[in-house]
Amino acid sequence: MKISAKEEYGLRLLIRIAKIQNEEEGLSINQLSEAEGLSVSYAAKITRILRMEGFIQSTRGPKGGYVLAKAPEEIHIQELLRAMDGPLFDATFCNSHTGQQRMCTNSVDCSTRSLWRIMQSALDRVLEQITLQHLLGDEYNSDNRLQEILDKQILKTEEMN
């Protein structure tokens, strides 16, 4: 599984915007671009997606720029990743991998599809519990919080079996 550049930079820009102390002042595209080492045009492309999907909003004026559109604890990472690049697996996935034929030779009975579906389900169950708030601390604290979420998910799964 690969994390796309859009997902990585979308999340990083959102974290950077969320760390603004004073909501009266936003971060401009130039500031975001410089802070994350991105081209201005790529930062603009990512912020456009984030704005259109309702994660950030722009403010006008001399101290204008981008601010969060909702509180960090209301922004779920699963929603962000889906907005940036879509899910790892969805129902149309198999249509894109038919080889040289019109339909996949395994379209009726496919254990591979089962694997991708269960991976997506497991990933969704974990990511829907993680919010932007969980990622606003330093790496050590974020790591601990995220491990707690994963441990709880594993316990739930074990209890179900």
Helix/strand layout:
Elements: H1 5-18, H2 29-36, H3 40-52, E1 56-59, E2 65-68, H4 77-85, H5 111-127, H6 139-160
What report would you give on this structure?
This protein is mainly α. Helix content is 52%, strand content 5%. It is built from six helices and two strands. The chain has helices spanning 5-18, 29-36, 40-52, 77-85, 111-127, 139-160; strands at residues 56-59, 65-68. Strands 1-2 form a two-stranded antiparallel ribbon. A hairpin with a 5-residue loop joins β1 (56-59) and β2. The longest helix has 22 residues, at 139-160.
Rg: 19 Å
- Please work out how many helical segments DSSP would assign: 6
Category from helices, strands and their pairing: mainly alpha
**Proportion in β-strands:** under 5%
Distance between the termini: 26 Å
What is the share of helical residues? 40-55%
Question: For the largest beta sheet, what order do the strands appear in spatially?
Answer: 1-2
Low-confidence stretches: none
Shape: globular
Question: Which labels suit this protein?
Answer:
two-stranded antiparallel ribbon, mainly alpha, 161 residues, 6 helices
Give a short summary of the structure.
The protein is mostly helical. It has six helices and two strands.
